Amino acid sequence: MTTAIIGVGNLGSALARHLVHGGEDVMLAARDGAHAEALAHELGPLARSASVSQAIEESDTVVFAVWLGAARELLSVADNKDRLRGKVVVDPTNPIKLRDDGTLQRSLPEGQSSGSVVAGLLPPDTHYVKAFGSLGAQSLAASSNRSPRRAVLFYATDDTQAAASVERLISAAGFDAVRAGGLNDVARIEGPDGDLSQGGLNGALLDVDEARAAVAAAPVA
Ligand SMILES: NC(=O)c1ccc[n+]([C@@H]2O[C@H](COP(=O)([O-])OP(=O)(O)OC[C@H]3O[C@@H](n4cnc5c(N)ncnc54)[C@H](OP(=O)(O)O)[C@@H]3O)[C@@H](O)[C@H]2O)c1
Prior knowledge:
The chain is an alpha/beta fold. It has a single domain (about 1-215), classed as NAD(P)-binding Rossmann-like Domain (Rossmann fold, 3-Layer(aba) Sandwich), CATH 3.40.50. It has helices at about 10-20, 35-45, 50-55, 70-75, 80-85, 115-120, 135-140, 160-170, 210-215; strands spanning about 1-5, 25-30, 45-50, 60-65, 90, 95-100, 105, 125-130, 150-155, 175-180. Strands 3-2-1-4-5-8-9-10 form an 8-stranded mixed beta sheet, with helices on both faces. Strands 6-7 form a two-stranded antiparallel ribbon. The longest helix has 13 residues, at about 160-170. The N and C termini lie far apart (about 40 Å). The model has no long low-confidence stretch (mean pLDDT about 95). NADP nicotinamide-adenine-dinucleotide phosphate binds near residues 11 and 68.
């Protein structure tokens, strides 16, 4: 199984490192192909670099580790959409932008999730799952195979194939997977303030028991 990671910045590079460490094949793509190539070279034989369209074509699962605006652009290209048909699409995007002073603010109106935007742009026969965006990239990078108990990565989907694929990838990346709900629940795991996002949890990383209890608790209105 091959996972395409589109975007090799803070989030995509951390994810690529963990997946390769867990024995997964990855295909890396970026706006500047040299960035993907440099990371693939660093990560060794399980990692290859490619154009966006080639990475999508040659993978089973595609992670859009890009900002929401770039995801919208990439998903407006008919060729990319065609190549995504039948594949699992993993969406770690958050509805966040930077203010001029460097602090974070929502980039979408209250109540609108980034997941609803991305899922709405996909062909109907793709398998959508929200995952890998609930922790800050530094925490993601630093928390793989945490001891004595693994940290949790939440995911949300209505799709059983996507759930199975992402659970396998979360485990390969060195985390425990906990389902936060379906497409209607994706905002719970999106930053900056979803109640199950790291921001909403005041920076905490949860173990599997804590995570299941947090999912069961009603989100604070
Ligand atoms: N950073 C975090 O702590 C964090 C945490 C949770 C979720 N997220 C989400 O993860 C996503 C990525 O965040 P980030 O911090 O990793 O961003 P980043 O460091 O700015 O990296 C963005 C990556 O996207 C690539 N890219 C941009 N436009 C592209 C295009 N048209 N085609 C292909 N690749 C393109 C860039 O390519 P180049 O390398 O060539 O510039 C870069 O590799 C965002 O949606 C964010 O909300 C981030």
